[in-house]
Every structure is written in C-alpha cells, then in structure tokens.
Amino acid sequence: AQSVTQLDSQVPVFEEAPVELRCNYSSSVSVYLFWYVQYPNQGLQLLLKYLSGSTLVKGINGFEAEFNKSQTSFHLRKPSVHISDTAEYFCAVSDTGGFKTIFGAGTRLFVKA
Amino acid sequence: DSGVTQTPKHLITATGQRVTLRCSPRSGDLSVYWYQQSLDQGLQFLIQYYNGEERAKGNILERFSAQQFPDLHSELNLSSLELGDSALYFCASSPTGGLGTDTQYFGPGTRLTVL
Questions:
Q1: Which tens digits make up the pLDDT trace of A10-55?
Q2: Which of residues 25-44 of B touch A (CB under 8 A)?
Q3: CB pair distance less than 8 Å for A43 and B98
Q4: Mean pLDDT value across residues B58-76
Q5: From CA A32, how far away is CA A50, in angstroms rounded?
Q6: How many angstroms separate the Cα of B34 from the Cα of each of A30, A96, B4, B82?
Q7: Chain A: residue nearest B103 by CA?
C-alpha cells in the first residue's frame, strides 16, 4: 500500500521569495505522482504530474517538481511566489496498475507582503 | 471552473438523518470519485465509479453508499448521520478508468453540517 507524507503543515514565506514544499512517498511498486492546489473555498486542481520520463516536471503558475526515486521524494518548488499563491497544496500518489490515488495531509502556503 | 458540478453547495441536517449529494462529471468523463475532507482527517478517498460500475473503494463507512447512473451522474447517500460526518464532500471526475494516470477534476464541494 502506498502512503504520502507532506513534511510541513504550514509554510509562511514573503512575496517574491523562493519556496519548496516537501513530499515523501512510500510504495513497493512504481508510482505516479501529483501535486494539486486548493484555493480558499474551491475544489482541488492539478498543478503538475509525473508519469514517466524526465524527472523534472513543470506545471502551471510557474511551479515545478522533481521526482527523486532513490529518496522517494517529489518536492514542489517555485523560484518566486506571489500573494495569489496562498493556498493549500496536496501531494498525491497512485501506483501503476491501481485505481486509488492517495493524498497527503496538505501544506498550507501563506505568502506575506 | 472545472466543469464538475455538485449540488447542493451547503446542507445542514440533524443526527440520524439521511442525505443525498449529487455530482455531474465533466462532459465525456467516465469516472467519478468521492472524497471527504475534514480538519482532523484531511482528504479521504471514499469510492470510485467507472461507467456505472464500482471500481475502487477507500475509507467509506457502511452507512454511506454511492452509485453512478447511466447518464454518468453520481449520488452519494449518507445515512444515520453523526456529528463526525460534518465535512466537505468533493466529487471529482476523470476521462477514463484511471489506472493511476488520470488527472482528476474536482467540483466545488458540498459542505455538510450535522447538528
């Protein structure tokens, strides 16, 4: 069975600073990895996903993530954040051949002026 | 706007009651997923349907049931409601049966309050 750990429940950061949201997963088989974002009072939407190929994945709104198989990590990064990036971010994993997607507990990113 | 619609937006009811939440997937999507989001448990996968058939089951209580109809809309039925069932319930849809690769498109959610 897979599991996902998001290492930080909250990350405060100043506007225009870089940010990294950390995600580690556990699985005995190959996985697909996702980052979703939830803005206040909205549903989740996909930021990016890793299925195969290049380990550096670029997503929407200037976000990117790197798949590191040896460290079982899929950290999300953005070089310069905006106030509008304030939201909750969820890392998720599904195993190849499976149907369930398991979500992490979420990291609340709070961007300060 | 993801194209997934959920009704109602808010629902307030009493313990012991039964409610039905409705979801219409994006046009052309065959899979529907249900999730429960609460402060203490986070986002929990409940159940997935693909083209009318149950495909995967998560942490869904026996008091809860779901179905997907021929027109692909789905309903989540919650019965014998308890205070702890108060949560945001999300529906998501995806184009295919998944096999783990699909992007899920989430609706805006139904906020259930059990008093």
A1: 999 999 999 999 999 988 778 899 999 999 888 999 999 998 888 9
A2: 33, 35, 42-43
A3: no
A4: 95
A5: 6
A6: 24, 21, 12, 19
A7: A46
